[in-house]
Amino acid sequence: MIIPALDLLGGRVVRLRQGDYARTTVFDLDPVSRILNYAQDGAPFIHLVDLEGARDPMRRQRALIAQITRSCPVPVETGGGIRSDFDIENLLSLGIERVVVGSAAVTAPEKALGWIRRFGPDRFTLALDVRITDGVPYVAVHGWLETSKTTIDQALAPYLAYGVEHVLVTDISRDGMMKGANTALYSYLSHRYKGLDIIASGGISSLSDLRDVRRSGARSCVLGRSLLEGKFTVREALKCWQEG
Asked: What residues are labeled active site?
């Protein structure tokens, strides 16, 4: 599945390079209009990154998120700074289809598993952002500021028995750099975890890159900067993905 993404900061569409707020590119776009265009072009799902909420859950862009979910004809997922039952309840009440849980999935797995038991695994996407060290993917937390000692396999282990299906995996070194995706990582994960919807993210700058991700075995792919910069359209991405 092709999943267009928008990063939102102060109500504006932005992109960060490798998660660095000091390396922000602002796009002169209306987020609601852009999302509607993506949906009209055939996108089956939308991914929102609430960068305000990621830094401070009290500053979550709730009004904008609600406007988007009311307007968008396809399901939307979002996250950023998910730390409590209230955060999840609030987003679901705004019409969000799936809540994206990142750092808490690694730093507080018992709490995250409690959310899954309460709300159901179909309402969540685990977001595991990794840095590769000596060939090993370690999960980063707290907005990528800290790399944990937890490998991606160790991070996934508690969730496999609870029906979690959607796992968004980003190689931080590739994010926003437009230099190709880490297809070796996605190939490893898709073959090791055949029942999971491995969602690739980061580095895709061409249809050739997208084709490589598809062939790696990833079931879905999030596209952000490549669509914003017009490297290809949603329609072209969908056709490429379907053709494999």
From this structure: 7, 129
